[in-house]
Amino acid sequence: MYCIRFASSLMPRPTLHSYFTLPPMYLQDLKHVWRDTWLYVQEHIVFIMIIISLLLLASLLPHLTFTARVNVDIVNGKEAKPHSRPYMVSLQKDKKHICGGFLISDEFVMTAAHCWKGYPEILTVEVGAHDLWKSEVSYHVEVKSYISHPHYTFCSQWNDIMLLRLQEKVKLNDYVNWISLPKEGDVSGDTLCSVAGWGRLRTKGPTSNRLMEANTTTINHEECQRKWGSKYFQASQMICAYGHGGSCLGDSGGPLVCGNTAVGVTSFVSVIRCNAPERPNVYTKISAYLPWIHQFIRNIK
Ligand SMILES: *[C@@H]1O[C@H](CO)[C@@H](O)[C@H](O)[C@H]1NC(C)=O
Asked: What residue ranges are annotated as transmembrane (predicted)?
C-alpha cells in the first residue's frame, strides 16, 4: 500500500564478485579467504559503511516521510458539549470506530475516501452519538452505496473524499442533523475553524470514546505547500490548518468547520507526530468538489 518506490540502481553494490571467480583451490584454504575478506573490508570500510547507512536510511524512509491516512483523534482538544455537533457520525467496521464523517443531508454522509478499503468491506454509520460506549440516543444505519471519488487512489492522498448513501433516511432532531457545505470559493488563510472526532488523544495514545473538539486556524496555501512539499500538498484541492489542538489517528473523515459550514474533510497528518507545527493537518477542500457532489445530491442545502 505504500507507494514509495526505491530505484534499486541508486544502491551501489560492493564489488565482491571477484571472490566468486577465484580458482576452487583458493576457496579451500579458508584462512586465505578470511584474511582476504578482512583486507577487503579494511580497504573498503568507508564504502561499506556508506552502503550500510544507505540501507538503514532506505528502511527508515517510509516511516519518516509517509503520512497516516487511516484513522486520523483529536489531540489537545476538549470534550465537545454532548450533541452540539449533531452532524457528526462515527464510521464503524464490525461495530468499531474507524473514522469520522458528517451528515450533509438526511441521506448522505461525507467522509474521506481512504476510510473505505473497497468491496467487500462493509461499514456502518452511527448517528446521534456522543459517547460511543453508551448509546443513549444514537443508532446504527447501514450504507446503501459507497461513492468514492473516481480519481482517488490508495497510492496518493489526492481526491480523498467519499459520499455514503444511507440505507434509510435519518430522522432529523436535536441529536441528528446535517451541516451545510460551502457555496463556492476558498476559505482564506488565518480563519478560525474547528475540528472534532473520536480519534486518538495523543500520537501513540488511546482513542476517545467521547467526541472531542479543538480549534484550528487555516494556513495560506503557499505556506502549506512549503511545509508539506508539492508531492503531498495540492493547493487546488486541499486546505491545511494548525492550532493548539488538532486531528490525530481516528479523526479522518470528520469535517473542518468554519463558521457553520463544513469546508474540509480530515485527510492526513504526519505519522510521526499528530499536530506537528511543521506538518499541519491537511483537509480535502470541499468547494473543489461541488460539481461532483451535486451529481449525487441535487437539493443540497
Ligand atoms: C475555541 O475558541 C472559542 C472562541 O475563542 C472558545 O470559546 C472555545 O472554548 C475554544 N475551543 C477549544 C476546544 O479550545
From this structure: 44-61
Lowest mean pLDDT among 144-153, 233-242, 251-260, 265-274: 265-274
Ligand 1: nearest atom to the Cα of 194: 1
| pTM of the entire predicted model | 0.75
Distance separating alpha carbons of residues 88 and 91, to the nearest angstrom = 10
- What's the gap in Å between 160 CA and the centre of ligand 1? 28
User: What architecture is domain 72-300?
Assistant: Beta Barrel (2.40)
Q: At what angle do helices 30-43 and 45-65 cross, to 10 degrees?
A: 70
Q: pLDDT tens across 177-228, in order? A: 999 999 877 788 889 999 999 987 766 667 788 999 999 999 999 999 999 9
CB 142 within 8 A of CB 167: yes
The DSSP secondary structure of 212-247, one letter per residue, reads EEEEEEEE-HHHHHHHH-TTT--TTTEEEEE-SSB-
CA distance 282 to 280: 6
Amino acid at 35: R
Residue of the nearest CA to atom 1 in ligand 1?
Answer: 215
Distances (CA, A) of 225 to 2, 236, 242, 284, 288: 22, 11, 14, 14, 17
Site to substitute for ligand 1 among 191, 215, 216, most atoms within 8 A of C-beta = 215
The residue nearest atom 13 of ligand 1, judged by CA position, is: 214
| Residue with CA closest to ligand 1 atom 10 | 215
For 88-128, how does the pLDDT look when each residue is reduced to its tens digit (9 = 90+)? 999 999 999 999 999 999 999 999 999 999 989 999 999 99
**Three cell numbers at 244?**
493548539
> Of all protein residues, whose CA lies closest to atom 8 belonging to ligand 1?
215
- pLDDT greater at residue 163 or residue 59: 163
The residue ranges of every structural domain in the chain are 16-65, 72-300
The catalytic residue positions are 114, 160, 252
